Amino acid sequence: MKAVFYSIVFMALLASCKSVEKMVEKGEYDKAFSYAISKLQGEKNKKTEYVKALEKAFDKLNSANLKEIDRLNPQAKPANWVTVHNIYKSILSRQDRLDPLLPLVSEDGYRASFDMIDVTAELRNAEENTILFHYNRALDFIDKSEKTKDKLFARDAYDELSKIDQYRTSYKDKERLKEKALSLGLTKIYFDVSNELRDFHGNDIEKDMWNLPVSKLDNLWNDYNIGGFDDGKDADFIVIIELDNINFSPERESVNSYTEEKEILIRKEIVKEVRDSVIVEVEKEVWEKVKANISEIMREKKSELHGKMKVLDNNSKEYVSSVPINVYHDFNGYACNFVGDKRALTSESKNKMDDHIEFFPSDFSMADDLSAAFGSAVMSQVKKVKF
What we know:
- With about 375 residues, the chain is an alpha/beta fold.
- The chain has 3 domains: about 1-115, no CATH class; about 140-185, no CATH class; about 185-255 and about 295-385, 2-Layer Sandwich (Double Stranded RNA Binding Domain).
- The chain has helices at about 1-25, 30-40, 50-70, 80-100, 120-150, 150-165, 175-185, 200-210, 230, 345-350, 365-385; strands at about 185-195, 220-225, 235-250, 250-275, 280-315, 320-340.
- Helix 2 (about 30-40) packs antiparallel against helix 3.
- It is flat, with a radius of gyration of 42 Å.
C-alpha cells in the first residue's frame, strides 16, 4: 500500500515539474515565475526543476521589461511615463518576492544566478515624470477650458490632477488647480416656476414647487438651485416648471341595492306515517327560506393637474427638453351593509361587508396630493436630463 502511495506522490511531483517546464517553453514566464516561487517557498529540499525554471523566468521577465522601457522611450513620449512607472514597480515587486529565497540552491547542489538590478532611482524618476505629465496635461486642459468655455476640458483637468493623488498628497499648487477646475467645470442649473393656474389653489401649488428640495440632486459637476444664481442670469440651464391647469370633478355617490335568498336546513325530525296500512317512522328535513337586503354605497371624486417641465440652454437660448407632466388623484369610497338574515349572504357578499364609508376629500386635500405628485414627477424627470 505504501508503495502505491509513494508512486502516486512521485507521479504528481513529476507532473508538476513538467508543467512548470512547459510554462517556460511556451513563454508563460509570469505564470512560471509565480508557480515556481510557490513550490520553493518553505521547502528544505528544493527541486532543481523549479530552481532552474525560476531562474530562467526571472531573467526573461526582467530582460523583456527593460526592452519594453527602451521601446516606450518616455523622454520623447511623455505619455508613456505612466506605463514605464508601472513596469519599474513590477520589476521591484518581482525582486522583492524572490529576495527571501536567496541564495537559492537546489537539493542537487544547483546554485541559481539572478541578476538583481537596483531600479530605485529609475522608479523615483518615473514617478516624478508621471506626476509632471498629469500636471502639465491638467494645465493644458484648464487653459483650453478658459479659452473655449468648454466645461469638459475642466473636468478632464480635474481627473488628471486627481491621478496625482495616488503618488503625492501634496504637489505644487495641485489643490488650487483642482478648485479652479471644479469652478470651470461646474454646471449651474436654475429652476423657475411659471404658474398659469386660474384656480384658488394655484398659489399654494406654486409655493410647493418653489420649495422642491432640488439641492439633493447636487453632485460634483452639477449645482441645482431654485431661486438663486441671480434669478438664473448666471445659470447654464434653466428648468422651467409650468403649471397649466387643475380640475376637480363633482362628488358622485351611487347606491346599489339587491336581495339574496337562500333555503337552509333548519332541522331533521322523526314523524310517523302510514304506509301500506303500517305505521312507520320517517326522518324528514325541515327547510326555511331566509332573505337579506344588501346596500352598497360608492363615492367617487377625481382630480388632475397638468403642466410641463422644460429645460432651456441659457447660452444658446434654445430648449433642449420639454416633457409633459400630468398627475391624477382619484378618490373611491365604498361601504356595504345588509338588513335581514346573515345566513342568506353569499361568500362574495360577506367579504364585501364594510359599514364605514369615507368622507369625500376636500379640494384642498386633493390639491395637496396633486402638488406632491407633480413635484415628485418633476424631480424624477430632472434626474434623466444630462446637463
